What does this fold into?
Amino acid sequence: MKRKLLKAVRTIDEFDAALFRDLQIGVELQDFTEPALPDCELYKTLNAYEKKLASFPFIKSMHGSFLDVDIASFNLDFARYSKKLYMRDLFFAKVLNLDYLVFHANTKLRYANKQAFDFCIQLQKDFFAEAIDATGFSGTVVLENVLDTSPLQIIKLLDAIQIPNVKMNFDFGHAKLTQTSIEDWIAASASHIGYVHLHSNNGTEDEHKPVTESDAAMLTKILDKYSLQVPLSLEYWGCDIKNEVARLQNIL
It folds into this structure.
């Protein structure tokens, strides 16, 4: 296997640390994306992960908050609430000594007005610079394409942020839902890509299905072409992890 693999887990119960060690794969935690998690459960989960990950030798990642958040909202109360969640996630990532923290890129596609778009980008630039410094997170923040139809907006966002440890999480499944080819996505954003979410779909719905072997081979070929040796996180469920790693290990 040429690239380092991770497997996303939705709850701590899905994370079998011994199995992940045997398979030599990393883990992406997704528990903390749940906005209705009570505080006691939240910190109980954090403490449990701290114990499980203490001597875990492979890549450790976490998906940050994305439901009902907008750190660049013009509603100051909503923006303040959103920033609080992002700051919490950054601090949790520091406590757990994580390598990566995933946030959805807020590219403000609804703003056709350039001035409004530029202002939203400036707000995010200022936030990430301050928040990363304040929380002491030393890993890499990766911003994920979600509703973007091309890489242009997320590139503008990352070019504006200009922080070395803020990169792009190229979400393969989300890119498949657009009219832009996978190679065009990667060719344009290669210098920004630091992480990949790997899952598949029928081309019209964000199904998060297992990636096909042909798609995996195609992605590998393109990543090789642009000399991208970045971690790949399998962001789908309902499959045997051991069998899935065996299926993909000669392709990725």
Summary: The mean pLDDT is 94. The radius of gyration is 18 Å. The beta strands are 5-9, 26-29, 60-63, 100-104, 140-144, 166-171, 193-198, 232-234.
